[in-house]
């Protein structure tokens, strides 16, 4: 099973990917996470991507498609892949078709998380994650069970993303509308698009996604 989770910033792609990994043993391929790891490690890709990400603009198609190519190629063929935040442009969608074909895989579902844009800024500015294991939280909608302690690994250190401020979020949303939303009709023509109401509680959204996969 190979699926794309599509939706604007803050739609819940990362949150739902984590659930799918846990419930179905799939692997999450998040270009945003890969790029943040590259920035942290100060690799050439990271050095090139940092300023672009801080502005909320899109990193080059060549860079992100190479990341997906490398990571998918290293996966066992029988493990399902969740593409989180990729593809984001028409060129990336074409690249993904080629990369999947090369690996003997086909795309089963494109799941669009439909969200109310007004709620997204609040979701993103309230987001934080565990500095050790990366588990995602939200100040009010999804806090840790015990104040200041990660539910997953027990760490007491947390972090916030540098691009999670209101101004950058607006640019990220503009980029989504202008460059990413237009790739949907191509997938619709193939009959593989499903829509899920992303405004429900996290477990309700998860159940709706499972209903599509089963
Ligand atoms: P990326 O990391 O992909 O960011 P994004 O697309 O802006 O999406 P987010 O990660 O912000 O949101 P999400 O949908 O994962 O939401 P989450 O589950 O965290 O990309 C970052 C940057 O990298 C880009 O701007 C670009 O520069 C670059 N980049 C990455 N991929 C690229 C590509 N392919 N091409 C070019 N450039 C690329 O949830 C958000 C918050 O809401 C959390 O706090 C969560 O707890 C909470 N929440 C989640 N679901 C719910 C719910 N149902 N109810 C209430 N709260 C919820
Ligand atoms: Mg994410």
Question: What structural keywords apply?
Answer:
214 residues; five-stranded parallel β-sheet; three-stranded antiparallel β-sheet; 8 strands; binds BIS(adenosine)-5'-pentaphosphate; binds magnesium ion
Write a brief structural summary.
By secondary structure, the chain is an alpha/beta fold. It has helices at 13-24, 31-41, 44-55, 61-73, 90-102, 117-125, 166-180, 184-189, 202-213, and strands at 2-6, 27-30, 81-84, 109-114, 127-130, 136-138, 158-159, 193-197. Helices cover 48% and strands 15% of the residues.
Q: Which class best fits the helix and strand makeup? A: alpha/beta
Name the assembly state.
single chain
- Overall, the morphology is globular
Overall mean pLDDT: 96
Strand arrangement, largest sheet? 2-3-1-4-8
**Which molecules are bound in this entry?**
BIS(adenosine)-5'-pentaphosphate, magnesium ion
Give start-end ranges of low-pLDDT stretches. Answer: none
Portion in helices: 40-55%
Computed over alpha carbons, the radius of gyration is 17 Å
Biggest pleated-sheet summary? 5 strands, parallel
Topology as H/E string? EHEHHHEHEHEEEHHEH
Number of strands: 8
Distance between the termini: 11 Å
Strand content is 15-25%
Number of helices: 9
């Amino acid at each position: 099973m190979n699926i794309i989770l599509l939706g604007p910033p803050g739609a819940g792609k990362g949150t739902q990917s984590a659930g799918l990994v846990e419930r179905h043993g799939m692997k999450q391929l998040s270009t945003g996470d890969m790029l943040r790891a590259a920035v942290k490690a100060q690799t050439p890709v990271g050095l090139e991507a940092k300023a672009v990400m801080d502005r909320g603009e899109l990193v080059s198609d060549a860079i992100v498609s190479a990341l997906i190519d490398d990571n998918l190629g290293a996966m066992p063929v029988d493990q399902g892949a969740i593409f989180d935040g990729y593809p984001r442009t028409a060129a990336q969608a074409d690249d993904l078709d080629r990369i999947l074909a090369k690996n003997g895989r086909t795309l089963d579902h494109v799941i669009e998380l439909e969200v109310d844009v007004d709620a997204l800024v609040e979701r993103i500015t309230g987001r934080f994650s565990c500095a050790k294991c990366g588990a995602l939280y939200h100040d009010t909608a999804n806090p840790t069970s015990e104040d200041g302690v990660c539910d997953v690994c027990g760490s007491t250190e947390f972090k916030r993303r540098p691009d999670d401020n209101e101004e950058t979020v607006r640019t990220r949303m503009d980029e989504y509308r202008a460059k990413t939303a237009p790739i949907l009709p191509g997938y619709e023509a193939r009959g593989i698009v499903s829509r899920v109401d992303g405004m429900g509680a996290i477990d309700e959204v998860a159940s709706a996604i499972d209903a599509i996969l089963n």
